[in-house]
Specification:
globular; five-stranded antiparallel sheet; 6 helices; Phosphorylase Kinase, domain 1; binds thymidine-5'-phosphate; D-amino Acid Aminotransferase, Chain A, domain 1; seven-stranded antiparallel sheet; 2 domains; alpha+beta
Length: 239
């Protein structure tokens, strides 16, 4: 076992996390912030305790997903907010799965939030803040050099497994997984693995009985009770 890694130079600061180099060229450390943004950074705020919740929850789910056959960037949780992850180059794709109509899908398609879908939908956005993460399809991704057809097939296969696992996992907590966004990265040896995070920032989670929102929509839509919602999800997962 090598000694525990420490943060070196900060490589990148995103809206919800910072990424640091370490002494190991194949490992980064991510540090989760309490900062929250919405609408491509137009709305800004703080969700107290969010960083620690998202760190712990994402790490837990990634370990479960590894067991279910999805390779992930998770290596080791260092503390409340910090985790060692495998170094990857993020594919510039936001991979979104929808099990129930909500959010931008409901708006675009004129379908009421909460409407059932006949099959899960997988969609891609081009991860580009300047352009507002535009909706794209496979041909766009390949034509623009964002990913190869083979990459996209791997991403689809893993994403399907992620959805099946997470849907069943959350249902066991009486939570409906309405939709979520995940990101993948490529390791130095060209393997695609699940990266970024899985948390109430990146999933729509509704209480399966009351349909109460237990996710970042409480912040996006000024519904109040944001911290309580994140803590409720934690309570249901960890007791
Ligand atoms: P949407 O309905 O706004 O397109 O969001 C779909 C899912 O993706 C929802 O669970 C929230 C998540 N999401 C992110 O994680 N990051 C984002 O920047 C956006 C727009 C959505």
């Amino acid at each position: 076992m090598s000694a525990t890694l420490e943060k070196l130079e900060q490589l990148y600061e995103g809206k919800a996390k910072k990424v640091y180099k370490t002494a190991d060229p194949e490992r980064y450390i991510v540090s989760y912030k309490d900062d929250a943004t919405a609408f491509n950074g137009l709305k800004k705020g703080t969700i107290v305790g969010k960083g620690a919740i998202n760190n712990r929850m994402s790490n837990y789910l990634m370990q479960k997903l590894e067991e279910a056959g999805v390779p992930t960037h998770f290596v080791e949780e260092l503390n409340d907010r910090e985790t060692v992850v495998r170094k990857v180059t993020i594919l510039p794709l936001e991979v979104i799965v929808r099990n129930v109509a909500a959010g931008s899908f409901s708006k675009r398609m004129g379908v009421e939030e909460g409407s059932a879908l006949r099959c899960p939908i997988l969609e891609f956005s081009y991860k580009n803040d300047e352009l507002g993460d535009p909706f794209i399809n496979d041909d766009y991704a390949v034509a623009l050099g964002l990913a190869t057809r083979e990459d996209l097939q791997t991403v689809r296969d893993y994403t399907h497994k992620v959805n099946e696992f997470l849907k069943a996992f959350f249902l066991g907590l009486n939570i409906e997984l309405v939709d979520f966004k995940i990101e993948f990265g490529k390791t130095g040896d060209g393997k695609i693995i699940l990266a970024d995070e899985i948390s109430p920032d990146t999933c729509r989670l509704w209480d399966a009985t009351t349909h109460e929102k237990l996710d970042k929509d409480r912040f996006r839509r000024d519904l109040g009770g944001v911290e309580d919602a994140y803590q409720e999800v934690m309570r249901r997962i960890f007791g």
